[in-house]
Fold this protein.
Amino acid sequence: MRSPAPPQPVRDIRPPDLPDDIPTPAAVVDRAALRANVTAMQDAMDRAGVRLRPHAKTHKCVEIARLQLDAGAHGLTVGTLGEAEVFAAAGVDDVFVAYPVYADAARAARLRELHERVRLAVGVDTEAGVTALAQAMRGATEPLDVLIEIDSGGRRCGVRPDATVPLARHVEASGLRLRGVYTHGGHGYRGPDARPDAARDELDTLARAHDALDAAGFPIDVLSAGSTPTVELSARAPVTEQRPGTYVLNDAQQVALGAVPPTAVAFFVVTTVVSDAVPGQVIVDAGAKAVPRDTHPLLPGFGWLAGTDLHLRTTNDYHGFVDVPESTPRPRVGDRVVVVPTHVCPTVNLHDELVVVEAGRVVDTCRVAARGRNG
Ligand SMILES: Cc1ncc(COP(=O)(O)O)c(C=O)c1O
């Protein structure tokens, strides 16, 4: 597998042109960068002959999902039934819940309703999960589609490729329909060098699962891989579908991994310096309620201050701590400071709306419609 380009420095992430009257802390999207990300990913997948089914957990917004679908995406991926319900209600008609949903009594009715409304598929990786799904779907006119999750090395969920056949037999015996297999090469997040290995693991394990199922008489249509750090490397046969999510907005972690260049960052938290009373630091008005405490081994703190060498060292609920060395000019109380979160997906989930900017103006706002729909 070819080596990806080396990462560019996180300090090269520039803040967008901003009007100075956005109330802070604000979750801001740079429209030009957002659109460029949507187009670039769709073009790359079209060139590779792979369908794009973006994971909507990153943006949780109907407007951004629409951009992705209008550009050519083939349905959406979500992580919860709640997210699926939001996008189905907005007219998205093809949704894959890439999660081993446990269909307890509370979820059964919701699953049946979604299944009647949209082309639905759900992830499975255990016999107990399959049994519960089958019970929930009892009486449905059409069988529910499922995809078996494969563990390609992330050690989170999923079975090994040779364990797919007994699970496929259970799926069939339970009256569900096997559409395919999927994996998330999450171990590609460990560092720039881990990306090619994780992509290769995605390709190998999906191919082995396909071959095992085929030999046992279970032909499948979908071999689905998906993560922003691996997508450019595993978008080729036998993979038929990719499910990246983060690529649409990006964050400091993706830049540090070399998955995207600094110019692809389209999401920022705009903050105001509220205190410089304690020497050696300033406090900004984005605490843990505006920027999550997610970390990555390649990065300090929870977010990078765009266009500087500073970072968000820690947070309390409403206070963000930024250490400022003596050699660096100290931002003043009232100054705007733009944070690039280490991890964008949980950041979006902390905000009611995204303020969309272009050329120094607010051009739109998007409601984070699936915010908090965590189950
Ligand atoms: C099952 C699954 N598919 C796809 C994705 C998208 O990956 P990324 O956020 O790296 O784009 C994720 C992310 O957590 C995931 O868990």
In short: The chain has a mean pLDDT of 97. The pocket of pyridoxal-5'-phosphate is lined by residues 55, 77, 98, 184, 226-228, 243-247 (CB under 6 Å). The chain has two domains: 8-29+259-367, 93-244.
